[in-house]
Specification:
The chain is globular, with a radius of gyration of 19 Å. It has helices spanning 2-42, 46-52, 69-78, and strands spanning 53-60, 66-67, 81-97, 101-114, 117-132, 135-146. The termini are far apart. It contains three helices and six strands. It has a single domain (2-146), classed as Nuclear Transport Factor 2, Chain: A (Roll), CATH 3.10.450. A hairpin with a 2-residue loop joins strand 5 (117-132) and strand 6 (135-146). Residues 40-138 form the DUF4440 domain. This is DUF4440 domain-containing protein.
Length: 150
């Protein structure tokens, strides 16, 4: 009986471990893109941000404001917004991916200061990344405000 039980459990355990490892590897590149984007936004690093933003970027903020690559790179260093932290909720979910495009959903809490007033906002985000010039670039991003506590 013990042998039968172990023969049944060991393959299941191995399958779960392999599946988990594959899922972790699948998410790793997407997480790196997201972390770089967030880091560049927090540090107002327009030089590096420029390299990961597609020329046709459409970036929709949760307040309805829409920016292009040009306006984001122009406004970010001079704007009155300063991000302090991005707190991640879960792992990015890849909804579509092929050799040239990735669609990623993720959740985070953004903390910062806008016009000298501190803020904290929970966001659900949809990002579309495209391979251009041998580099993954953000083509589109839309965030909506949610309440993770409810």
């Amino acid at each position: 009986m013990k042998s039968y039980f172990l023969n049944f459990l060991i393959p299941i355990f191995v399958f779960v471990q392999i599946s988990f490892a594959q899922n972790q590897n699948n998410y790793e590149p997407e997480l790196q893109h997201c972390i770089l984007l967030d880091s560049y936004l927090m540090n107002k690093d327009v030089t590096n941000l420029n390299s990961i933003l597609h020329p046709n970027l459409s970036l929709g903020h949760s307040n309805g404001w829409i920016e292009t690559k040009e306006s984001l790179l122009e406004n970010l260093p001079t704007s009155k917004i300063k991000y302090h932290a991005f707190l991640y909720h879960g792992t990015p979910e890849v909804h579509f991916q092929n050799e040239e495009i990735k669609s990623i959903r993720r959740n985070l809490t953004a903390k910062g200061r806008l016009n000298e007033k501190e803020f904290e906002v929970d966001l659900k985000i949809l990002e579309v990344w495209i391979l251009a010039n041998e580099n993954w670039q953000l083509l589109s991003r839309q965030s909506v405000e949610v309440d993770f506590d409810s």
